[in-house]
Amino acid sequence: MASTSDIRKGLCIKYNNDIYKIIDFLHVKPGKGPAFVRTKLKSISSGKVIDNTFTAGHKIESIRVETTKFQFLYKESESFHFMNTDNYEQISVNSNIIDSSDLLKDGEIVTISINSEDGMPLSVDMPLNVIMEVVETEPGVKGNTATNATKPAITETGARVNVPLFINEGDKIKIDTQKSTYLERIKS
Fold this sequence. Notes:
Blueprint (H helix, E strand, L loop, with lengths): L1 E2 L8 E4 L2 E11 L7 E8 L5 E7 L3 E4 L2 E12 L2 E6 L5 E5 L14 E7 L5 E5 L3 E9 L12 E6 L4 E5 L7 E5 L4 E6 L2
Antiparallel strand pairs: 1-6, 2-3, 2-6, 3-4, 4-5, 7-8, 7-10, 8-9, 10-11, 12-13, 12-15, 13-14, 15-16
């Protein structure tokens, strides 16, 4: 058993007969009244995100988790197939436990959290950023670098990202996987 002081991003807990992953939290100590922890929980089974508040000291049931590096192989309808980089075993993961699945490209290395009790994959953590090639966007115009205006672009995996006006088709860009936003152009 853990308590609210053990709450952190990525912790998997049992709550309301389901397994949830904590995706965001905030410890609050008001001037009057007891302290509490405001959390955002994502259901592993359905992908639904709920808000919940735990009072300070509340006991929560955490789940023992093993994290392992896996390489993305391919997508098949709603399943994503990965290979363990240590022992080459393959697993299949449902798309609802992958955040930003449209940013996954072949060969990408991710960290998968697996429930130690039953071997079920709980979450797929993407790298902080990925490098993608822009395959479709409006052509850039010389001199359009002074403003913060953006335009839509489609990457090699089909992800839609807003990019600055100077980005052209064929450019490689770095994308933040947590927010699905453009970070910078990669010089080749």
